[in-house]
């Protein structure tokens, strides 16, 4: 957790690597994932860099891998996942072997694919020829051709055609054509022949397979009868234009029968060859599929290495590669070891060097996280990346976020459902993490599994305090209320007031949380409104005070201690003297006024409204108390309140003018000192130093602004803070509003849905309850757990982003993006 208090210290380093060891050294750095390289060749075109040819080789290998993978998936061959350690980037000698292996594999698969296409083309042609020979039987014989209602006329036509064929005066062509092209094909034949072509057709029942794509195509067999060679030529041209396949078809029945027998024999032989070819192709692809994931990872790592080497610069002697990178200071020894291992891997006698260089540039922000803290850090980074070395709100969010969520989602039953869902994801994270899912909602849930688990745990805790389980209460410790009235008195009175002042009715204070007797009270909502509203104000003020106090950590670390006196003190005084005082009065009211006292001013009826008291305090007004009551809770309260308001009013010009005047006097003193010493350049040096300090402290470059702009910015900041203390305090009332809405919606769902089955006294109630419980469970999960949970999550996120983090968090940094093979592979998997 200590690593999350603020971002890690970063160092800008310069690397000097020998060219022969550059590849292996960068490979080792990619495995560590702790270096962010800078591009030293910004002015050089990407196609003119040193390692562009190696990148093209990697692109070519990726193309071959994509082709092989497509062929493997086309044959439904399973590609196994890598569960053990991922392969490392290949060394230069292995790159040549891998490239040759991929070339051989691609050629072999292409040859197998081409042979399969040729065989399938032959099989398709023979199949079409078989169908043509079988379908033309109906075109030449009377008994098979007369199939429509005009049987007599068709028989005459077929007889004439057969006689004409016998006399040699008619010719014909036969073939197959795609089914959707038949109408156009028929119209075109009629137009070119002026109706002198007799076309017969028959659809093929089963679809045929396209040899190239493997898709199914539906075709129709046809025979066109004509007279004359000129018409024959025209018909063949039309067939070519419509991509119709023509096949030789004898006119004699015996010849057709013999030809069909020969075609069937050839189809059987060809089918056997096709099966053997497919088996051989499947064996080859199965062997390749086992190595495909390893090859893909190795090529991706190679390409990433050469892309990174293109960021390096070559020295003038061209004997050394120079690179610049951001490195966490704690990982400097790890990076040095990686460079040494890279040099040793190729047997280089000249070691690589890593030098830390000074820079005025703002370093990237790097917060070291684990699987538990990563979700909370992502919530903060979604708002804005922290400035370098700025206090990290994610550390406190681990507790405050699920706690504020639990206040709004306080139900022991619903919280248990959410906690069980989170616990299932946490306990099965290894198994679930290996399954890559394209469902974005599931990925969000799984990434925030620890957040969901903690939100469920805290909701169970607050639900236990509220004594709320699916809108019902538990009587764990026995109610502190006892009714001493007889049965007739209770039954004849619809409403009864149980006075807490009576020792017979109130025996003791309930041990933990709310007394379950409030579930039966008619003023339950009024009591819970007051209780939860005050709780939301208390936790809101404490949360904001903690945020203001956290700014001291930044001021002290960045050596801007003058801001503690000029900004922090007036802010904390303004917040404490007004709103923390209001919280104090709430506790004072709870403690001082009791129903068991005989002193009239301290009875519940004399308890003043804290809200009215706060408004009168701000407006310097007074309210006449009731008879026998006091206006204030203690004697000197009026004087104390006026003092607090005066001090709070003084804090406003303190915040408004303190910092601008300090900057103005500092500039004047620096200018006077420079001219007295006769050092003109000192002014430039001083301004540069101040600018660098402000830049590292949070990018506040006031020294480069005009004094009028400083006053304007400070005025905006002061007005924003003063108004936000009121608006942010009111904003925390959403804790009360959502908690009350959640409890009432849960109660309505119980009374309106589940009670329909519970109120039935006959046996029908059991059957009715079976279905009613299903509807109640569905509505509970969909509305109260998912929709209300999402609503409470978003409101909690707003309370942290706006009400809490605005007190100290700037978020003007940029994230540390190291060169990491693991991150590169994960990002590419997400894209796929």
Mean pLDDT: 86
Share of β-strand residues: 5-15%
The structural class is: alpha+beta
Tally of separate helices? 26
Rg value:
43 Å
Q: What is the share of helical residues?
A: 55-70%
User: What is the β-strand count?
Assistant: 11
The outline comes out as: extended
> Unreliable segments (pLDDT under 50, ≥5 consecutive)?
142-158, 164-168, 679-702
Taking the sheet with the most strands, its summary is:
5 strands, antiparallel
- Termini separation comes to 34 Å
Q: For this entry, what is the oligomeric state of its chains?
A: single chain
Commentary on this structure:
This protein has 832 residues and is α+β, with helices and mostly antiparallel strands. Among the domains are: 2-90 and 292-357, no CATH class; 114-275, Alpha-Beta Plaits, CATH 3.30.70.2750; 371-474 and 506-527 and 754-815, no CATH class. Helices cover 62% and strands 7% of the residues. It is built from 26 helices and 11 strands. The chain has helices at residues 19-32, 52-74, 92-135, 137-140, 142-145, 151-167, 182-193, 229-241, 253-309, 332-345, 374-383, 394-408, 412-427, 429-434, 440-447, 449-466, 487-492, 524-557, 562-592, 610-619, 637-677, 681-698, 707-731, 734-758, 764-804, 821-831; strands at residues 10-17, 36-38, 171-178, 198-203, 208-209, 216-217, 219-226, 245-247, 313-314, 321-328, 353-357. Strands 1, 2, 9, 10 and 11 form a 5-stranded antiparallel β-sheet that branches. Strands 4-7-3-8 form a 4-stranded antiparallel β-sheet, with helices on both faces. β5 and β6 (216-217) form a beta hairpin. The chain is extended and about 130 Å long.
């Amino acid at each position: 957790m200590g690593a999350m208090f603020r971002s890690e210290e970063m160092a800008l380093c310069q690397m000097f690597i020998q060219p022969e060891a550059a590849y292996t050294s960068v490979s080792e750095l990619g495995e560590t994932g702790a270096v962010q390289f800078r591009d030293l060749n910004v002015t050089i075109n990407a196609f003119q860099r040193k390692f562009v040819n190696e990148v093209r080789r990697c692109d070519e290998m990726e193309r071959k891998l994509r082709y092989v993978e497509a062929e493997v998936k086309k044959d439904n061959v399973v590609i196994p996942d890598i569960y053990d350690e991922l392969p490392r980037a290949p060394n230069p000698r292995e790159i040549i072997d891998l490239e040759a292996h991929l070339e051989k594999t691609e050629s072999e698969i292409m040859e197998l694919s081409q042979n399969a296409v040729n065989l399938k083309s032959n099989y398709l042609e023979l199949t079409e020829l078989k169908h043509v020979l079988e379908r033309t039987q109906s075109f030449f014989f009377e008994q098979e051709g007369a199939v429509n209602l005009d049987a007599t006329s068709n028989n005459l036509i077929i007889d004439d055609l057969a006689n004409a064929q016998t006399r040699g005066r008619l010719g014909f062509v036969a073939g197959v054509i795609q089914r959707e092209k038949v109408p156009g094909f028929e119209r075109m034949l009629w137009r070119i022949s002026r109706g002198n072509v007799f076309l017969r057709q028959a659809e093929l029942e089963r679809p045929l397979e396209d040899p190239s794509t493997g898709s199914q195509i539906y075709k129709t067999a046809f025979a066109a009868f004509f007279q004359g060679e000129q018409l024959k030529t025209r018909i063949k041209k039309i067939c070519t234009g419509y991509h119709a396949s023509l096949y030789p078809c004898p006119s004699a029945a015996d010849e057709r029968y013999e030809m069909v027998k020969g075609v069937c024999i050839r189809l059987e032989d060809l089918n056997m060859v096709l099966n053997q070819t497919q088996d051989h192709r499947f064996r080859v692809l199965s062997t390749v599929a086992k190595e495909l994931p390893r090859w893909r990872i190795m090529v991706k790592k190679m390409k990433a290495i050469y892309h990174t080497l293109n960021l390096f610069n070559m020295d003038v002697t061209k004997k050394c590669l120079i690179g610049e990178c951001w490195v966490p200071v704690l990982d400097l020894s790890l990076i040095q070891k990686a460079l040494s291992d890279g040099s040793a891997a190729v047997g280089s006698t000249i070691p690589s060097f890593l030098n830390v260089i000074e820079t005025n540039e703002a370093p990237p922000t790097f917060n070291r996280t684990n699987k538990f803290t990563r979700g909370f850090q992502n919530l903060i980074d979604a708002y804005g990346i922290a400035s370098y070395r700025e206090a990290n709100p994610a550390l406190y969010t681990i507790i405050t976020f699920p706690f504020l969520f639990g206040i709004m989602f306080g139900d022991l039953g619903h919280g248990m459902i959410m906690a069980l869902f989170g616990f299932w994801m946490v306990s099965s994270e290894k198994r679930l993490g290996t399954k890559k899912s394209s469902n974005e909602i599931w990925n969000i849930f799984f990434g925030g599994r620890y957040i969901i688990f903690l939100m469920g745990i805290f909701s169970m805790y607050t639900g236990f305090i509220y004594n709320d389980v699916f809108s019902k209460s538990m009587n764990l410790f026995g109610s502190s209320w006892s009714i001493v009235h007889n049965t007739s008195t209770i039954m004849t009175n619809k409403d009864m007031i149980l006075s807490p002042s009576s020792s017979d009715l109130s025996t003791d204070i309930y041990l933990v949380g709310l007394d379950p007797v409030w579930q039966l009270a008619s003023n339950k909502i009024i009591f819970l409104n007051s209780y939860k509203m005050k709780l939301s104000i208390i936790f809101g003020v404490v949360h904001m005070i903690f945020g203001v106090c956290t700014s001291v950590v930044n001021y002290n670390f960045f050596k801007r201690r003058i801001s503690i006196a000029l900004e922090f003190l007036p802010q904390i005084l303004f917040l404490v003297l007004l709103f923390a005082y209001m919280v104090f009065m709430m506790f004072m009211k709870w403690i001082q006024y009791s129903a068991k006292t005989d002193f009239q001013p301290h009875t519940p009826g004399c308890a003043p409204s804290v809200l009215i008291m706060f408004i009168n305090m701000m407006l310097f007004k007074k309210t006449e108390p009731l008879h026998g009551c006091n206006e204030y809770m203690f004697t000197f309260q009026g004087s104390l309140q006026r003092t607090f308001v005066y001090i709070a009013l003084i804090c406003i010009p303190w915040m408004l003018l303190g910092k601008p005047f300090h900057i103005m006097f500092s500039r004047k003193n620096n200018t006077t000192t420079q001219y007295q010493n006769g050092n003109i350049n000192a002014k430039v040096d001083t301004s540069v130093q101040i600018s660098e300090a402000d830049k590292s402290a949070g990018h506040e470059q006031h020294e480069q602004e005009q004094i009028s702009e400083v006053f304007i910015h400070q005025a905006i900041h002061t007005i924003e803070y003063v108004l936000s203390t009121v608006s942010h305090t009111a904003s925390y009332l959403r804790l009360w509003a959502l908690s009350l809405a959640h409890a009432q919606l849960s109660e309505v769902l119980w009374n309106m849905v589940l009670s329909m089955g519970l109120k039935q006294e006959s046996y029908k109630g059991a059957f009715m309850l079976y279905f009613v419980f299903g509807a109640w469970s569905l509505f509970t999960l969909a509305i109260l757990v998912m929709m209300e949970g999402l609503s409470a999550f978003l409101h909690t996120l707003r309370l942290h982003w706006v009400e809490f983090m605005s007190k100290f968090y700037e978020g003007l940094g940029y994230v540390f993006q190291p060169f990491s093979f693991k991150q590169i592979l994960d990002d590419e998997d997400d894209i796929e």
